[in-house]
Amino acid sequence: MSEHRPTAVIVLAAGEGTRMKSARPKVLHRIAGRSLLGHAIAAARALGPDHLAVVVRHQRDLVAAHVSEVAPDAVVADQDEVKGTGRAAECGLDALPTDLSGTVLVTYGDVPMLEAASLHSLVAAHERSGSAVSVITAHVPDPTGYGRILRDADGAVAGIVEQKDADEAQRAITEINSGIYAFDAQVLREALDRVGTDNAQGEKYLTDVLGLAREGGRLVSAHMLDDLWQTEGVNDRVQLARLGAELNRRIVEKHMRAGVTVVDPATTWIDVEVSIGADTTVLPNTQLLGATTIGADATIGPDTTLTDMEVADGASVVRTHGSLSVIGEGASVGPYAYLRPGSELGAKGKIGTFVETKNATIGDGSKVPHLTYVGDATIGTGSNIGASSVFVNYDGVTKSHTTIGDHCRLGSDNMYVAPVTVGDGAYSAAGTVIRKDVPAGALALNVGTQRNVEGWVPRRRPGTAAADAALAAGAPAPEAAAGGEGATDGTTESAREARP
Ligand code: UD1
Ligand code: MG
């Protein structure tokens, strides 16, 4: 894309967008993981212009802040109280060097599907033909609301007339102005100086530049784009969803063509920045969002949402909700796992069913298979955490860290009361509450000795199904119980049972 490079791109984003009925500026609404404006900026930047200006006015602080986040190198240009696309372009131009020459592109911040490749062919054709202005046009079934392309007897573009200024014959024209143009910088500047606001809307129209260029004997060209999606702007939330779905369809298709199996494209949502390796399978109802990267040969889904995740080759992630976490090569996650930010699972590790993790590093080959919370922890390699364990990281005031060594075999229903450290190769008994550090190779246990009160059920719960079953299994009958315990009242017996 180096041969034809615009000097500048001006993205118009000062409009109000009232039909969104939103407290948020229209251009900050998102599809495919990026704001509408972000899409427009990405397409512009892909052309490598020397200058990029974004024209703002409505809710300018919010829009300007977003611009400096997604394109710190862009110039934010403020539009004043004079209305119209012409004034907006002029304000953009005013924010750039005064001696600017070459090709200036104008695009819209609310047209998210326009591709860099289309802009590039516009610039290339514009420069090759020596045009002063080139405009992307399209034939649409219903041109209502758009500016119409006026052509003279030999088919050359003579100008653009807005819907509100058009007569009946002009309104019948179905070739519309997309609002995306390439201008010769000098022609644009000079023409804008002369454009007035004498029209139905009292606005300074950018479209008037075309007529003025023609009057000045300059060449004005049209570039028809068949792909209507690319020139469609978002005005309300119905269009937002429609364009979001179409953009998603295209993204999913791109991945399939690159070697990813997507079982159900209709229920698979993939953000624009996501990367997926070849031979990975994505199962239905899966969303891959943000800056997520998935390796090759992995299986993701069904029913999985991953945001800003890194998943290595060969991993399997089933019915999982995860964000800002790493899943190692060949590791297995889910079904029903919740990976909160800062979780890192090593190669061939396992985060199993009904497991929640947060800020936890789980080493290569280590397993947390069932019903467990691992928060603020480091687990070494090759260790196994028993079912139903909790890393007790919060004392009500501060969060503390738990460290587990390599090759530990830790029992079910353990509580690790942080801060605490379990050494390499240690074991723990089921039901242990680990409050003290466990040395390497030790067995930790702190469970009270179990005492069985023989015959308690037939004696204290006579006539119940449990008592009948116990008696049938040979439990001692009440009259046979020793030591007159049958006569003891409930209080006494409960108290006695409570003693260790
Ligand atoms: C404009 C064109 C019309 C074209 C249509 C395509 C003009 C006069 N008309 O129509 O020929 O068919 O786009 O969608 O150019 N904006 C500003 N400042 C303003 C006004 C608009 O920055 O003062 C921005 C908006 O944020 C938006 C874009 O320019 O991104 C277009 O504005 P919009 O009001 O939608 O354009 P239309 O008047 O409908
Ligand atoms: Mg308008």
Give a verbal description of the structure.
The protein has 500 residues and is an alpha/beta fold. It has three domains: 8-231, Spore Coat Polysaccharide Biosynthesis Protein SpsA, Chain A (Alpha-Beta Complex), CATH 3.90.550.10; 260-444, UDP N-Acetylglucosamine Acyltransferase, domain 1; 456-496, no CATH class. It has eleven helices and 37 strands. Helix 2 (60-70) links the parallel strand 4 (51-56) and strand 5. It is elongated, with a radius of gyration of 34 Å. Uridine-diphosphate-N-acetylglucosamine binds next to strand 1, helix 3 and strand 10.
What keyword list fits this structure?
alpha/beta, 500 residues, 19-stranded parallel beta sheet, 29% strand, 22% helix, binds uridine-diphosphate-N-acetylglucosamine, Spore Coat Polysaccharide Biosynthesis Protein SpsA, Chain A, UDP N-Acetylglucosamine Acyltransferase, domain 1, elongated, binds magnesium ion, 7-stranded mixed beta sheet
Number of domains: 3
> What would CATH call the architecture of the largest domain?
Alpha-Beta Complex
Strand content: 25-35%
Distance, first to last CA: 80 Å
CATH superfamily of the largest domain: Spore Coat Polysaccharide Biosynthesis Protein SpsA, Chain A
Report the count of strand segments: 37
What is the CATH fold-level name of the largest domain?
Answer: Spore Coat Polysaccharide Biosynthesis Protein SpsA, Chain A
**Name of the top-level CATH class of the largest domain:** Alpha Beta
* Sheet with the most strands, sense and barrel status: 19 strands, parallel
Helical segment count: 11
Low-confidence stretches: 483-500
Structural class: alpha/beta
- Principal-axis shape equals elongated
- The whole-number mean of residue pLDDT values reads 95
